[in-house]
Structures are given as C-alpha cells and as structure tokens.
C-alpha cells in the first residue's frame, strides 16, 4: 500500500486504528464514491490465524443485509494487503457521542439498544458472532432511527 492509495482506493484521511489494523476514508477512483476502507497491518497479514479471522469478518459482513449494519462494498487483497471496503456512515461512534453529551435519555438508549440487538440478530442468523461489540464500534447518525 502506498502512502496515498491502495489499488483503486485513494486515501483521503485516517479515521482510526483498531486491533486488526486501520480504517481510512477513501475515494474509490472507479466510481468516485467515498467509502471506509479497513486494512490489516502488513505484519499481521502474514499471520495465518489473524488472516483467517479477517477473512471470516469479511464473509460475515458481506452476508449481512440489515438497516442497522454497515454494508460491505468490496473485500479482498490488494498489493498483499487484506482489506474490506464499507459504506461510509455519516456521524461518529457511540463512544464519541457519550463523551460529548453524556448519558442518553432512556427512550433513546432503549431505541439504540433495540437497533443493536436487531443487527446482532442478523449477524447471528448468518452464523457469525461479532466478538468486539463496544461503544467505539457502534456508529450513530443524526438520521431518524430505524425500527421506530
């Protein structure tokens, strides 16, 4: 991966770093779409156990079609770097929101909890476990909440 691009994905900015690697906001030069690109660190990509976990995550994410789950657009390996391209969700994480605003009003907390439970049901129905559910991994938007 060059400092500026991975295959057709032109890097615009780094969004964060997690246990598997980094997430970037990128432009897909084929379509012009701005998406989120998750990549594994090169050193970890050589670890068969770690690579298998990443490939399971990609398969799981592709199998999920749910309004409260981020849609996978592409996945694979480019220049020796495993990646997953996701739709870019406008907003931030639940952790960011809690830090900024404090506790959620109970009705909103219940709606968010119901949405998370519904998305997890879709993940589990596809035969997978999330394994890393935490406020940093829950994206929230200012859009109307799904499911009422």
Question: Could you explain the architecture of this structure?
Answer:
This protein has 148 residues and is an alpha+beta fold. The chain folds into two domains: 5-87, Phosphorylase Kinase, domain 1; 92-140. The chain is 32% helix and 30% strand. It has a six-stranded antiparallel β-sheet. A two-stranded antiparallel sheet has the order 7-8. It is globular and about 45 Å long. It starts with a strand and ends in an 8-residue tail after the last strand.
Put the structure in a nutshell.
By secondary structure, the protein is an alpha+beta fold.
Elements, N to C (H/E) = EEEEHHEEEHHE
Number of helices: 4
CATH-defined architecture of the largest domain: 2-Layer Sandwich
| CATH class placement of the largest domain | Alpha Beta
Structural shape: globular
- Give a quick account of the main beta sheet: strands, pairing sense, barrel closure: 6 strands, antiparallel
Mean pLDDT: 86
Helix and strand content put the structural class at: alpha+beta
Query: What is the spatial order of strands in the main beta sheet?
Result: 1-2-3-4-6-5
- Fill in the CATH topology of the largest domain: Phosphorylase Kinase, domain 1
Helix % is 25-40%
How many strands appear in the DSSP assignment? Answer: 8
Key attributes of the depicted protein:
alpha+beta, 148 residues, disordered C terminus, 4 helices
Topology:
Blueprint: E1 5-6, E2 9-17, E3 21-28, E4 34-40, H1 42-45, H2 48-63, E5 72-78, E6 81-87, E7 92-93, H3 94-101, H4 106-125, E8 139-140
Antiparallel strand pairs: 1-2, 2-3, 3-4, 4-6, 5-6, 7-8
């Amino acid at each position: 991966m060059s400092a500026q691009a991975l295959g057709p994905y032109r890097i615009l900015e780094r969004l964060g770093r997690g246990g598997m690697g980094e997430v970037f906001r990128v432009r897909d030069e084929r379509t012009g779409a701005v998406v989120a690109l998750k990549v594994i660190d090169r050193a970890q990509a050589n670890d068969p156990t770690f690579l298998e976990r990443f490939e399971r995550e990609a398969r799981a994410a592709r199998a999920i079609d749910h309004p409260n789950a981020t849609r996978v657009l592409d996945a694979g390996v480019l220049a020796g770097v495993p990646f997953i391209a996701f739709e870019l969700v406008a907003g931030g994480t639940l952790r960011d929101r809690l830090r900024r605003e404090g506790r959620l009003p109970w009705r909103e907390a219940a709606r968010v909890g119901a949405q998370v439970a519904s998305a997890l049901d879709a993940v589990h129905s596809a035969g997978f476990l999330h394994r890393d559910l935490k406020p940093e991994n829950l994206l929230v938007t200012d859009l109307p909440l799904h499911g009422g």
